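Complex record, two chains
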Amino acid sequence: MKTFNYHSAKDVKEASKLSSSKSAFLAGGMTTLPSMKLGLASYNDLINLKNIKNLSGIKVSGKTIKIGSTTKHAEVSQSKEVKKAIPSLAALAEGIGDPQVRNRGTIGGSIANNDPAADYPSACIALNAVIHTNERKIEAEKFFKGMFETALKTGEIIEAVEFEIPKKSNYQKYPNPASRYAIVGVYVAECKSGVNVAVTGAKSCVYNDKNLSSALSKNFSSSAIDGIEISSSGMNSDIHASAEYRANMVKVFTKKAVEAC
Amino acid sequence: MIKIELEVNGKKIQKEIPDHTLLSTFLREHINLTGTHVGCDTSQCGACVVHVDGKSLKSCTALAADLNGSKVTTIEGLASNGKLHPMQEAFKKLHGLQCGFCTPGMVMSVIDLLKQNKNPSDKEIRDWLEGNICRCTGYQNIVAAVKEAAAKM
């Protein structure tokens, strides 16, 4: 790993001030550190966010759950409040990586990285999340821009992710047997504004399948999507699964998720 | 360079280290605790698992600087007064290892499991060991050892 200057910021203001085009913020480091070790990424400065106190924690209000950006996956998966309000979100966190990754990895790090096969981005889309940064609030639909790309600007730091508590929801995924990343993952949620079907792992970026969402908004049953064709165009194809397989799994998992709601 | 202070197996240690020093490098090369093994060095195999403030993590994927002020327990810190930890004893008794390379990480990982779940099922043990790879045992005896230790701890 190429060397860098390590900083540990006391607050968001300091972290933002230290940042530049050649720096990265460090939360759990579960992607940043392996990428740097493999030579896929290098930075002049790494700015640790974990010592910033108010970035961690889970708050449930009447209609939403707000999770601080440095809250670890294990904290979300074990939280009684999350299990009660949005059980599918706790289950999603429990399915990330392995116990050691869940002990370090954070929700803010996961969505800032926006891996095309990550789990949390699908929860953000399905549960109409609002991403709170030190500068603004961003709706999830506008946050995830493309493969490893988000709406975040240099120096902008995620402070919390606020999820709508849905009427019902479920997340299904086919995990890569080695990494537990989603080969295909589908998060179905019935929210106030209608049903969302968020898909991860299938394309270069998480997306809301509008056809599936609108069919389920009209009739929330697995048979409601029987007639919908899922096109494999634009889907990922690799040694784990072909584009056609992924397209089929989107439908299979949507049905499974609806039935499990 | 950065100054850090860690408590490793109950001993306070202060060192000045390069900023990019991994915890696994710190343990093995700076303070000569070579019981923590580095297998894949890509966060997959789990041979490098240690406890930091009571929780298991992969030491090849953590910066020592990031853990400043923490308490670290390695495989060397388990035995007390020459007596093996019940988990080490169970691995020995039930042949939970063959070559032994993965064993330090296995033992540290499953001790963390028993802290959270005193009586895990076979499935829960296997799920927990998602991040620990053994190429010798087929896991049968590892699972048996965890159950034996759970009964004794």
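Note: Strands of chain B lie at 2-8, 11-17, 49-52, 55-58, 71-73.
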